[in-house]
Design a protein that fits this description.
The complex is a heterodimer of chains A (347) and B (326). Chain A is of the alpha/beta class. Chain A is built from 10 helices and 10 strands. Chain A has a single domain, classed as Rossmann fold (3-Layer(aba) Sandwich). In chain A, helix 1 crosses helix 2 and helix 4 crosses helix 10. The longest helix of chain A has 26 residues. Classes of the chains: A alpha/beta (347), B alpha/beta (326). Bound molecules: thiamine diphosphate and magnesium ion.
Chain lengths: 347, 326
């Protein structure tokens, strides 16, 4: 049984304002991705586009307790995490649209959102590849004697990659300030986790002596509270942490895959979507605690939709990259001697 | 002859070879219950059971190495990479184990296995998901590489690859799976190392492999309207390489353009151009030119991606240049 309002005007120790902000931001992530879905359907967005719908509490609750200068690294299902880290929705949407105003100048697309100003370090397309990268950021933090934290998101399927295990061992040996977060949505594409995994996600860090925990990833307050504590421990030099965030993907693996299929039934998706929506869950608790009315929610949603629409309009009116951009960003410095490019197009 | 898709041709080859030899098994991500990410292994789980059609975890280095180990003791694994992009994770096992095993064991242990999956760019998948893997593989002695462009070649080369006693990489194309074509029924096997003239012509040779065979044919058709007859030579197999066929077409047309999806530096075209100048220098009337992907990682933006990929205009321009008809 969860407690409801602990004292008047608050919820489980969070002030009304804090909780409303969480709700607002999660709504924002949801509306943003619904627009991405739309953009994909009408061909404005192409390639692979993986939505985080249903998993928003992980973006909000994990990243919320971080400081602005803490690093966040993720995989390809990263739009909402980029937004949670403070990236401008207009630039993220423009990246999905492949426009020059996009956060990666239109070169990266949905899977490669990066925002160094917000310490959002991607946006990586190879399953598990971001795990050593986050470990390296942890290394750099320790090397420079900073008190930052690196947070590494990955899907459940990534824990079967060698790079994951190698990274955890190194992080433990060198006591690096990294929080490894597995968003366990139960499936890697069309494969249920347990079909290809010998042990539970939660057990995966035990062999390396990294403290492990699990949270209900649909309950943003629980996630937030848990991560607030962990971030504090890691920042104070407690070494790496490992967390399983239990969640569920409401959409298909990517926009090119069906929502359900042979690997999970329609009924399962319907049931989980109805039962476990992190936004509805929070909304209902706010209603219950009489901290929010339907009218207030409606106007919140209107605001959010308007903001998302602005991002879409910005993206849609932004120009495509100039053709000359094809050859920029391959190297950061062009050397005085020797030839760097071999397709003969510069001659 | 039945007209079927490239996907179904591969599926037939896998099924027939698994039927023929029970030491052949298929392992990879999503190959069993999901029928393969691109549905190439459709129905194989039902037909051959879960011992022989196996869903792996996302552990490319691990399951590629597992395949090599199983091959060391006599099985004939087919390891599917969901795409060859992800095989970069497994390259250590491909090169250091599979390709070198026979040599470093002084001939004691051969590796009869297949690595397969789509290679090269699809549409707007950006840098990490859009790369041609041929060069990474073909560079290493000890491994063979084939790149079927048509359904008939897909079936024939896959069957030959599975029967070969060395490691063979079969590089397919995501954008080829729906291509239809006639495929001979029954035991259709195409020996490795045989190129195929996909179109005859006497003025210029477009030499290519894999998906870009179709682009070469398009370019040839357009050149025909301008009175230029291009011959299109599909290498089909990059190692063993049909040098005789390359020399024959160069001796016929005296001009060659290499077309490929990959990057130029040390690409397949670089090897072919070197071979031509070493062995047919006197037959050349112009330098061998190459049309490749732009020498950059693949961009996401639609307009930049189009610029980065080889296209018919650039093939036509290269053909005209070697004909001095610009
Ligand atoms: C090394 C590698 N292998 C395969 C893929 C193809 N692929 C992309 S996502 C994915 C499933 C990953 O599942 P999970 O880690 O659970 O993350 P989720 O998509 O559920 O967020 C696969 C197999 C890839 N991108 N990289
Ligand atoms: Mg998952």
């Amino acid at each position: 049984m969860r407690e409801t309002a602990t004292k008047k005007g608050s919820l489980e120790g969070f002030s009304r304002e804090e909780v409303l902000n969480m709700l607002r931001r999660m709504l924002f992530y949801r509306r943003f991705e619904e627009k991405a879905e739309e953009g994909y359907a009408i061909g404005k967005i192409g390639g692979f586009c993986h939505l985080h719908i249903g998993q928003e509490a992980a973006a909000e609750g994990c990243i919320g307790p971080l400081r602005e200068d803490d690093y966040v690294v993720s995989a390809y299902r990263e739009h909402t995490q980029a937004l949670a880290k403070g990236m401008d929705a207009r630039h993220v949407m423009a990246e999905l649209y492949g426009r020059s105003a996009g956060s990666s100048a239109g070169k990266g697309g949905s899977m490669h959102i990066f925002g160094t100003e917000q310490a959002f370090m991607g946006g990586h397309g190879i399953v598990g590849a971001q795990v050593p990268l986050a470990t390296g950021m942890g290394w750099a933090i320790k090397y420079r004697g900073e008190d930052r934290v690196a947070m590494c998101f990955m899907g459940d399927a990534a824990v079967n990659q060698g790079a994951f295990h190698e990274s955890l061992n190194m992080a433990a040996v060198w006591e690096l300030p990294v929080i490894y977060v597995v968003e366990n949505n139960e499936y890697g594409m069309g494969t249920a986790f347990h079909r290809v995994s010998a042990t539970r996600v939660e057990d995966r860090s035990v062999a390396y002596g990294i403290p492990s925990s699990a949270v209900n990833g649909q309950d943003v307050l629980e996630v937030w509270r848990h991560f607030q504590e962990l971030v504090g421990q890691v920042r104070e030099g407690g070494g790496p942490r490992f967390v399983e965030v239990r969640t569920y993907r409401f959409r298909g693996h990517s926009m090119s895959d069906p929502v359900s299929g042979t690997y999970r039934s329609k009924d399962e998706v319907t049931e989980r979507t109805e039962r476990d929506d992190p936004i509805t869950l929070l909304r209902d608790r706010l209603f219950e605690a009489e901290l929010l009315t339907q009218e207030e929610l409606n106007s919140l949603d209107q605001e959010v939709r308007a903001e998302v629409q602005e991002a879409v309009d910005f993206a849609d009116s932004a120009p495509f990259p100039d053709p000359s951009e094809l050859y920029t960003h391959v190297y950061s410095c062009i050397n005085e001697h020797g030839r760097l490019f071999f397709d003969g197009r510069d001659r | 002859m039945a007209e079927i898709t490239y996907r179904d041709a591969l599926n037939q080859a896998l099924a027939e070879e698994m039927e023929r030899d029970d030491s052949v098994f298929l392992m990879g991500e999503e190959v069993a219950e999901y029928d393969g990410a691109y549905k190439v292994s459709k129905g194989l789980l039902d037909r051959f059971g879960e011992l022989r059609v196996v869903d792996s975890p996302i552990s490319e280095l691990g399951f590629a190495g597992l395949g090599v180990g199983a091959a060391m003791v006599g099985l004939r694994p087919i390891i599917e990479f969901m795409t060859f992009n992800f095989s970069l994770l497994a390259l250590d096992q491909v090169i250091n184990s599979a390709a070198k095993m026979l040599y470093m064991t002084g001939g004691q242990i051969n590796i009869p296995m297949v690595f397969r999956g789509p290679s090269g760019a699809a549409l707007q998948l950006a840098a990490q998901h859009s790369q041609a893997a041929e060069t990474w593989y073909v560079h290493a002695p000890g491994i063979k590489v084939v790149t079927p462009a048509t359904p008939a070649d897909a079936k024939g080369l896959m069957k030959a690859a599975i029967r070969d006693d060395d490691p063979v990489a079969v590089m397919e194309g995501e954008l080829l799976y729906n291509v239809r074509g006639e495929v001979p029924e029954g035991d259709h096997v195409i020996p490795l190392g045989l190129a195929d003239v996909k179109r005859e012509g006497g003025d210029v040779s477009i030499i290519t492999h894999g998906k870009t065979v179709h682009l070469a044919l398009q370019a040839a058709k357009r050149l025909e309207k301008e009175g230029i007859e291009a011959e299109v030579l599909d290498l089909r197999s990059l190692r063993p390489l049909d040098v005789d066929a390359i020399l024959a077409t160069v001796r016929k047309t005296n001009r060659a353009v290499y077309l490929e999806e990959g990057w130029p530096y040390v690409g397949v075209g670089a090897q072919v151009a070197a071979t031509i100048q070493e062995e047919a220098f006197d037959d050349l009337d112009a330098p061998v030119l190459r049309v490749t992907q732009a020498d950059v990682p693949m961009p996401y933006a639609k307009n930049l991606e189009q610029l980065a990929k080889p296209n018919a205009e650039r093939v036509i321009a290269a053909c005209k240049r070697v004909l001095y008809r610009t």
